[in-house]
Structures are given as C-alpha cells and as structure tokens.
Amino acid sequence: MLDIQQLSKRYGDFAALQDVSLQAQGGQVFGLLGPNGAGKTTLLRILATLLRPTSGRAVVAGRDVNEQPREVRQIIGVVNGGMGLPARLTGREILRSFAGFYGMASAQTEARIAELDHALELGRVLDVRAGEYSTGMRQKVVIARAVIQDPAVLILDEAASGLDIFARRTLLDWVAAARRPGRLTVYSTHVMSEAEEVCDRLAILHQGRLLAEGSQAELLDCTGTRGLEAAFFELVRQSGLSQEAATGAAYAP
C-alpha cells in the first residue's frame, strides 16, 4: 500500500527529509513518530501530492505520487490538526458536498453519512453550522469528510491535536476500529502514548532521517527499552544526532 524509496526533500541547504525508505501494508495502522521538525509532515505532504520530492520515489496503493497525482488524490483521505471548514454550512452539508466531488450517488452518500454518524458519534454536529463548532466538533467533521469516499489510504497528521479528552478518545477508538484488509492508515504523532495504543508498525523520524522501522516489540527489543519514549531517545543516542528539533522545517515554503 505504501512504498517509499530514498525520498528526500531539500529547501536550499536545509534537508527536511534525507533518503527515507520504508514500506507499509494494508490492514495496518502505520505510525510516523517523532518530535516537531522531524520531517513527518513533509513526508505526508509528499504522499498527499502537495509537495514534490527533491529526489526519490513514493508509490501509494500502486500510484506514483509524481507521475499519477490525480489518481493518488482519488484514493486518499487527509486529516491534519489545522484544517478548516466553511462556517456557513452544517456538517451534513459539508459531507454531502465532498461526496459530490467523488461522484457518489445521493443514496450512497446518505448511507455513508449514517455509518460515520454511528462510528464517530457525530450526533447534533451534523445539523449545526461549522461556525459554531468547538475544536472537537470541527475535527470530527474534518475526519468524516476525509473518509466520506472510504479511501484506501488515510493520512492522519497530528489529528488529535487540540482535542479534548472525549473527542480524543473517540478518534483513537475509531482509528483502531477502522483497520481492515485493503486499507492503510498512516498515523503521524509526537505523542508516544497515542502511537503505543493504535499503531501496528512504526517508523521513527528525527531531523529528517529514518532512525528505525518495525513493530513496537521489535523497536523495544532492538533498543533494550520498555516504552516507545525510551526507545526513541535511545535511537537518537545511537544515531549520534542532536536531541534538538530541526526547526528549519517550520520555515520551509
């Protein structure tokens, strides 16, 4: 479902990503773990066809992100912590409009909205205008919008950022329940407890470099640690990289 080979992205002398290679299979929640500035968002923007890599190749469900960007966009859903919604529309209207972009029939759209209402506990959010939403309400609709067409690959970039404890719980439960053959969820976070709870395999990034990839058990075993946070710091120590964040990424265009 995901095949990345020697992927790099540079802004002048600053390397946001450096020769990253990894693979992920369907039926998984695949975690990208690392601090702010690690290169996670740069990688995900390349996968979502929002950035072109400087070098290397990325293939999403058999589609090359550089050569087939339109086809990639048809089979992915993307959520990040800062997505907005049109304030004058209700949640239901937003979901209907996005379903229309994918050519979904009216009956199919209404059935899908009902499914997402149950799975994400949307409730009254569907019939309230987005301008009146709390952060948690907005993020629920953003997620529902991203998966309205049941994408093969779902990209969640710090999707729990800013959520209250109840909305965060709903999100994590939904991510865990959404596993199925033929779907890959890419879950990017710097919160170790979230990764420990929902991710089947993980790639740990720091300063644009891939430090390790594997299951949680494999990462703990290779570092001799008992938790992902300790494993991360041990991998940074072994790499010889600084523990400071690569803040140049925040200023990259």
Would you kindly provide a written description of the structure presented here, covering whatever features stand out?
This protein is α/β, with parallel strands linked by helices and 253 residues long. It has one domain (2-251): Rossmann fold (3-Layer(aba) Sandwich), CATH 3.40.50.300. Helix content is 36%, strand content 25%. The chain has helices at residues 40-47, 69-74, 91-101, 106-120, 135-146, 165-177, 192-198, 216-223, 228-239; strands spanning 2-11, 14-24, 28-33, 55-60, 63-64, 76-80, 153-157, 184-189, 201-206, 209-215. The strands form 2 sheets. Strands 6-7-8-3-9-10 form a 6-stranded mixed beta sheet, sandwiched between helices. It is globular. Residues 2-232 form the ABC transporter domain. One of its GO terms (molecular function) is ATP binding. Keywords: ATP-binding, Nucleotide-binding, Transport. Belongs to the ABC transporter superfamily.
Structure keywords:
253 residues; alpha/beta; 4-stranded antiparallel β-sheet; globular; disordered C terminus; P-loop_NTPase; ATP-binding
Structural class: alpha/beta
Largest sheet: 6 strands, mixed
Tally of discrete structural domains: 1
Rg over C-alpha atoms, rounded to the nearest angstrom: 18 Å
- In the CATH hierarchy, what is the architecture at level 2? 3-Layer(aba) Sandwich
Percent range for β-strand residues: 25-35%
Helical run tally: 9
Work out the helicity level.
25-40%
**Can you write the helix and strand succession as a string?**
EEEHEEHEHHHEHEHEEHH
Terminal-residue CA separation: 28 Å
Q: Per CATH, what is the topology?
A: Rossmann fold
Name of the top-level CATH class = Alpha Beta
Query: Strand order of the main beta sheet, please?
Result: 6-7-8-3-9-10
The CATH superfamily turns out to be P-loop containing nucleotide triphosphate hydrolases
Q: Which residue ranges are poorly predicted, with pLDDT under 50 across at least 5 consecutive positions?
A: 246-253
Topology, number of strands: 10
Shape descriptor? globular
- The chain-level mean pLDDT equals 91
